[in-house]
Amino acid sequence: MSSSIFVAAALLLAPALGAPAPAPQVTEPASFGPDSQISASVQPSTTGYRVEVVENGYTSATYHGPYTGTPTTIGAVNAPTTLAASIAPQPLNPTATYYNSKGVPLNPMPAPYTPAGGLGTNGSLPRYMVESDFDFESIALGLYQEWIELDLFHDGLARFTDEEFTAAGLDAEARSLIEFMADQETGHATLLTNMLGERAPKECVYDYPYTTVREWIDFMQRLTRFGESGVWGFINHLDSREVGQLLAQSIATEARQQQIFRQMSGLTPMDVWFENGWPQSWSWTMLAPYISYCPENTTRLAWQNFPTLHILNNANINRYSPNDTAQDGSENVGPRIADPSVSNITASCENLNVTGYGCGPSVAHNKSEPLSFPGKKVLFQWDAPGQAVGPNNSYVTATTAGAPKFVGWSQQLNLTYSPLTVTGNNTGYTYQPEGFVYGNDGIINGTMAIMLTDLDLFVTPFNTSMLNPHIVALGMYQAG
Questions:
Q1: Global pTM?
Q2: Are the C-beta atoms of 467 and 453 separated by less than 8 Å?
Q3: What do you get for the CA distance between the two ends of the chain, in Å?
Q4: Helix, strand, or coil here: 102?
Q5: Tens digits of residue pLDDT in 286-306
């Protein structure tokens, strides 16, 4: 076996990174079931980031809060040369001509039961490592996401008491499920680290917006939304098909996590027919404000940070009448892009046992009054570029777009536009458009990306990043 193949294979066997403090030791059986042929052994414990016990034996990092120092590096990482200001649109790939009108294989099969075509199907031994700068920067972004999920899922378990969880409708079994999801992130972080190599980003320190169990769960359903969609947006552009294969197997788990957090938030678990894919700069824009600081020499990212688009009347998911949400942005817990809805309100649906209006944790809820609807007037305020964000306040928001003219709604298979009416200095509104993917599947639903643009550029799920040079500000809309 060649050394390069050995390294590629060995990377998949590295120990877990960033795991929480080990649980109390238990006696492991040497086999499973009567006359089992499956052997087992007790695995050595691993050490992870600094932890402290706060509540009920759960652990979390020792500090969560803002960065107060002075950044030593500013801006996204750059290559030695940048070849153009943007990527020019091109016509259809001239080799994309295959069409099968007969319904049977048209070309010789390379082996029995093996139709001609496909990538990575010629018998070559897989190499599970990134193969380009695009791959490295994309997987590094994914690792930043996995690290925050590992910390975030643990933090709420350690921060809140049994009584607070019970009041939020989440029992010990629900907490155990969240702990299992945190453990999943240990595996995901290990996998992505192995595929990147020695310059893989390390776990950082984070600054979270929530003060209640409900807000924690709501924040997690938003964060896993951009974590999942951010991968769907780039996975099929990776040069390494092998990396894409393993990444798909991890992000499928994240999709389940997002659904579970929606259920725990009292939202409909599935409200779309297709999940939406986002360019890397969208998910990095949403993630970066929650990273306080990172260890010295942590690998930096090349992706853009857009200015924040604030949806002033984003529906409060905790209201039994979401149309009564305040119109001034005060029902988000803060100004950051994915901050959750305020939970301490008098008109709460959390403990309301009324069909169509209750929003406690449940397998599913039907809403008599939806969070949003076609024709809803949506109010905006957006930040100017040039603001410091992200780890160590060392990244800067930027845009290359002109004056905003349109609102882009990215959901399912569509990027839909509505006209923007500007009402003042970085303020304006639009009306939520109506549209359907297929049949009665309304385009706009769920937790989704929304943006201001200077052009209503036609893009599709495979080339959404072509819109980036035209984005003025980016936000997250709670449509359903």
A1: 0.87
A2: yes
A3: 53
A4: coil
A5: 999 999 999 989 999 999 999
